[in-house]
Amino acid sequence: MRWRLGGLCLLAVLAASGQSHDQEEWIQLFNGENLDGWIPKVRGHETGVNFADTFRVKNGVMQVSYEGYDPPFNARFGHVFFERPYSYYRLAVEYRFVGEQVEGGPGWAVRNSGIMLHSPPPDSMRVDQTFPISIEVQLLGGDGERERTTMNLCTPGTNVVMNGRLEKRHCIQSSSKTYHGDQWVRAEVLVLGSAVIRHIAEGEVVLEYEMPQMGGGNVDGHDPAFKRDGELLDGGYISLQSESHPMEVRKVELLNLAGCMDPDDPSYKSYFVKSESSACRN
């Protein structure tokens, strides 16, 4: 089933929160207390090893911290994965950049992080793999002077289709405003399997594309078995990055758009767009 951005079905999804009589059941992926449900992977270390306490919870926020690093950074890019995959959903992450970049971090990584979507399982990543094969919603902070958009698209080991053509550029800018300083930003993503992905910054749509698929470069050290070029990405794991600049996250929440679509079932929600009969109670 193909979705088009101008279609009535997609418009209904985007308007669901305003038109539905159902209460939206957002899942809090981050509980504000600890990293339960999250799996770290830092380059140079096995999956599950939270090197130098890179990802930690303090004062109710998830911190990406480098206090335990012995500089330089040495390309120890990291990711923390939520424990289960999703396919059709709305995701919201509230984040901000703080402090100074750790010594040895690359110049492009100043106030730079990301939300990775449609990744293979975290234990598929090899010890020296740089990034998961995924769709990256790139998060960028301003330097106080120049314009710098956030919620851009980057594609480690992937490609997408935009305006009817296959896009092989590694990073594509969004139309967002620049967020300077340490202000909190709400980043939302609408994900409809392999059909449509839409980036929304503080309620404004800033980028959209379709048909995410494996392909391209910009990922090293991966297992070739998990990179099947041309195969559409219909779902996968979600992770947050550590790319050498400290960051805080106070909320990670998800509205699952896949569920029971039988109106007579008590678990039915009018905003579901993908049927999962196993979710029905009757």
Question: Quick gist of this model?
Answer:
The protein contains two helices and 19 strands. By secondary structure, it is mainly β.
List its traits.
single chain, 282 residues, mainly beta, 7-stranded antiparallel β-sheet, globular
Kindly describe this structure.
With 282 residues, the protein is mainly β. Helix content is 4%, strand content 37%. The protein contains two helices and 19 strands. It has helices spanning 8-14, 16-19; strands at 26-28, 38-42, 55-58, 61-64, 78-82, 88-97, 112-119, 135-140, 152-154, 158-162, 165-167, 171-172, 185-192, 196-201, 204-214, 237-242, 247-256, 258-259, 274-275. The chain is globular, with a radius of gyration of 18 Å. Mean pLDDT is 93; it is low at 1-8 and 14-21.
Write the layout of secondary structure elements.
Blueprint lengths: L7 H7 L1 H4 L6 E3 L9 E5 L12 E4 L2 E4 L13 E5 L5 E10 L14 E8 L15 E6 L11 E3 L3 E5 L2 E3 L3 E2 L12 E8 L3 E6 L2 E11 L22 E6 L4 E10 L1 E2 L14 E2 L7
Parallel strand pairs: 18-19
Antiparallel strand pairs: 1-17, 2-5, 3-4, 4-17, 5-16, 6-13, 6-17, 7-8, 7-16, 8-9, 9-12, 10-11, 10-15, 13-14, 14-15
